[in-house]
Amino acid sequence: MPVWTKGASVPLPEDDLKRLLIKKYDVNKDGRLSKEELSAFFGNLGSICPNFRAYCAMHHADHDGDGFIDPDEMNELVSCAPSTRSRTKVQMQGVAIGRAVDLTVLNGYDELIIELEKMFDIKGQVQTQSRWAVVFTDDEGDMMLVGDDPWLEFCKMVKKISIHPIDEVKKMNPKCRIPTSSPDGECLVVHLDSELKSEA
Fold first, then answer.
1. What pLDDT is stored for residue 163 in this prediction?
2. Max alpha carbon distance in the chain (Å)?
3. pLDDT by residue (tens digit) across 17-75?
4. What is the pLDDT of residues 147-187, one digit of tens each?
5. Distance in angstroms (rounded) separating the CA atoms of residues 81 and 155
6. Taking the alpha carbons of 153, 81, 32, 39 in that order, is the dihedral positive or negative?
7. Residue 22: its pLDDT value, please?
8. To 10 degrees, the CA torsion angle through 109, 113, 115, 121?
9. Residue by residue, what is the 3-state secondary structure of the chain?
10. Whether 166 contacts 132, CB under 8 Å
11. Is the distance from CB of 124 to CB of 130 less than 8 angstroms?
């Protein structure tokens, strides 16, 4: 898939992008890309969070786990370029049409909640937990409430985000955690209903 470069009027083919990556961003000329070099690449492409983009790209493409993108891993890397931002599906109970959120442009849970409230026109109703709570399905199919994991870990494992009435969430079965409003981030243990898990 072609990749759009910053300020370009036409997309850059993947083969050209791979050559550009090595030529321009391989600073020490060792034929591979480090996380720092990837961050410079994503920053030049206009990413709001280049360090996070580099983290995601490294996790996705560094198959041998050596901390570098080698030439044989370059094909996987270009699939992480900003032409195809990672978007996560979002469903809200009672709303037929879902949405999608790009976690790579957000800096944490606070920004995620604000974005979700804008999407579904429920300003303040999630942040204050007056009506809605946000749960997510991870890469193992388990359902949990947002806020219990470090932000980068959450972004790595989330597969789907769902918004449900707070009263319903409190009745649910599988153990998970719902963040309280306390400044130290302590969490209140609640239970998720098996019926909700079947919707994931």
1. 93
2. 57
3. 777 788 888 999 998 999 999 888 877 766 667 888 788 888 888 989 999 999 888 88
4. 888 888 888 888 899 999 988 877 765 444 434 333 333 33
5. 17
6. negative
7. 82
8. 180
9. CCEECCCCCCEECHHHHHHHHHHHHCCCCCCCECHHHHHHHHHHCCCCCHHHHHHHHHHHHCCCCCCCECHHHHHHHHCCCHHHCCEEEEEECCCCCCEEEEHHHCCCHHHHHHHHHHHCCCCCCCCCCCCEEEEEEECCCCEEECCCCCHHHHHHHEEEEEEEEHHHHCCECCEEEEECCCCCCCEEEEEECHHHHCCC
10. yes
11. yes
User: Do residues 101 and 116 touch, judged by C-beta distance below 8 A?
Assistant: yes
Residue 83 structure tokens: 């032409």
Residue 67 identity (one-letter amino acid): G
